[in-house]
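U., I forgot to send this yesterday:
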Amino acid sequence: MPAPQHVGARPVLVIGGPPTTNGDMHVGHVAGPYVAADVHVRYLRAAGREVLFASGGDDSQTYVVTSAARQGTTPGALTTKSWLQIKRTFEAIGVDLDGFAPTDDGYRSTVYDYVNRLYDKGMFRKRTVRLPYSTRTNTFLVEGFVGGDCPTCLADSRGGICESCGHPIDFDALIDPWSILDPDDPVTYREAEILVFPLEEYRERLIAFHESKATTWRPHVVSLMRELLARPLPDFPITYPVDWGMAAPFAETPGQTLNAWLEGMPASMYCHAHARRQRGIEPPANDDAWRAEHDAELVFFVGFDNLFIWALVHVAELIAHEGRYVLPDTILCNEFYELENEKFSTSKGHVIWARDLVAEVPRDIVRFYLNLTAPEHARTNFSRAGLDKVVGERLVGPWNELAANLAKLTAEVGGDTQPLPVSPRARSNAAAILRRFSLCFELPSFSLSRAADLVVQNVERLRAHATRALAANLDRDALRAVLGELFLQVRALVSAASPILIDLAASAARAGDFEPDMRPGALDLTHTTAFAVPGLDLRTALS
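Result:
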């Protein structure tokens, strides 16, 4: 299968779902949507595509309030601290965002413009709903304020969406509800008038949209969408009678706030506007990049537990804007990533913070292991001992032996700096490397684990080739020919692995005086040069 051609390709907008600013990011957080999005974006850039990659903090979630209470701080102080922590964690692990947007006046105005446009079109309905309520505090318990069992799968859940089965949970549907902030506070129910978005009115258009994606999106996404669309769709709450969040601007719901999930699409638009400003480009409007007339390719990277929102609610919202915006081309979801075969749990201390890990282990090593064990289609597991063993045996050891053998072979020709000849077979092999990796990095065949496995396969193949050459006692011309073949393929492998092994690729490219390039024909060369191939280490050197 030939590598994709990108001449005249559409610009790509990539969103890593804005993380809730209720703390720093642990390994389970970054292993899913963010590393995957970063790898895809780095590939697109190496393939010559125009891409804009952005994210930002999600401050309005009720989980901010519960986390702040648990930590003995205020929600505002927690979001400020967490936004900076998350930004630094992304930088530490090499998630190369064009912009990480703050929740500022521009953010809020973008949300209100988006919401008011739907309101003015008459897309919302006023409903009387029955909500969990605390008589002790005289507050409604919605979303992260209330726990209980999911009525669909019976798993322990919170209000709004079940993270286990992905189904929405209607307003009063939790089984045996309890207050997250005060488990001893008996939960009652009280009626409230709120605005809702009637998803059922978009059923046929949502069915048509998702059936058009059924052959290209991941199977779990397709099956969940079919399951949800096979039954009546619930009303999605636009406002809630709670204190935390952005004030609802509607006369019908005085004193209420916007549902935090409603911010997702306008927030993402603002993230891309912020990213363009970081690049020195002033957009004519904060939603400009998403306008239909620009025909951008829109790609969301999200966790499975958020699919109801991103794949149904947000798609219906975009449809409701009646052609103003592009619809997502791909929603690429991941499953849960566990720690030592148990769920990550901050409250129980069962957690490894991503920034702590990359302070101990080089981030290339971390990124490779997260790619190799990526939770693409099922839950997978992070193991600290497994990282050392698997990466040491399958990547670090073989790569360092390859680098050492190349240094010895180069020394045998006297460190000759003259260009090395490249045979047609070497060019064919280099093209095959780029082609196979491209299939792993392109949509819809995107797969981090297969890409990481390809790194292993090619390192071992080249290591064995170099070892045989050392033992063969070749004459100078034959050795130069072998070196030309090896260095061209190492250059191809460095380019192909550059979305994953970002620091190794940068070091090798500097040493070899080239830029990682995955465009078709990028390595159609007649000569190449030898260079000092950098090694890999399982531990970060102490300063």
